[in-house]
Design brief:
By secondary structure, the protein is mainly alpha-helical. Helix content is 76%, strand content 0%. It contains six helices and no strands. The radius of gyration is 15 Å and the shape is globular.
C-alpha cells in the first residue's frame, strides 16, 4: 500500500491526506486492522518471537517510514509540508496511527477515530 501511495500521480499533501483518511477509516471499519498493529508491536519486542520473524518484521517495518519520509521531503521542497526533520515527522505519522490502533484494540467498540484533519494539520501547510 505504501509503494502504491508513493506512485500515485498526486501531490504530497494529497498523498498524506489520502493515507491518513484511509488508515483512520480502516481502523474504524475493520476490527482486524487494530489487532494487526497490536500483533506487530508485540512480536517486535517479544522474546518469544523467533529471530527470523523479527528480522522480517524489522526489514518490512522500515518501508512505511521510508515512504512517508520521501513524501514529506517532496512536499517540503514544494513548500506544502511543514519544515521539520522528515524522519521525525514520519515517526509522528506512524506512531500516531499505531497508537490509535492500539487504543482501538484495547477499547473495542468504544473507539472513535479522530477527525483526520487533526493529523493532516500537523503535516500540511495552509496555502
Amino acid at each position: 500500500a505504501c509503494r502504491e501511495l508513493e506512485a500515485l500521480p498526486i501531490s504530497p499533501p494529497e498523498k498524506i491526506k489520502l493515507a491518513i483518511e484511509g488508515l483512520l477509516r480502516d481502523l474504524a471499519e475493520n476490527e482486524n486492522s487494530a489487532l494487526y498493529y497490536l500483533l506487530v508491536a508485540q512480536a517486535t519486542v517479544s522474546d518469544a518471537t523467533p529471530k527470523k520473524t523479527k528480522e522480517i518484521i524489522h526489514k518490512e517495518n522500515n518501508l512505511p517510514y521510508e515512504v512517508i519520509t520521501r513524501i514529506i521531503t517532496e512536499g517540503q521542497k514544494a513548500g506544502t509540508i511543514h519544515e521539520h526533520d522528515p524522519d521525525e515527522m514520519a515517526l509522528v505519522f506512524w506512531t500516531s496511527v499505531s497508537g490509535l490502533a492500539i487504543n482501538k484494540a484495547v477499547h473495542g467498540n468504544k473507539f472513535k477515530a479522530p477527525d483526520p484533519s487533526i493529523l493532516t494539520n500537523i503535516f500540511l501547510k495552509d496555502i
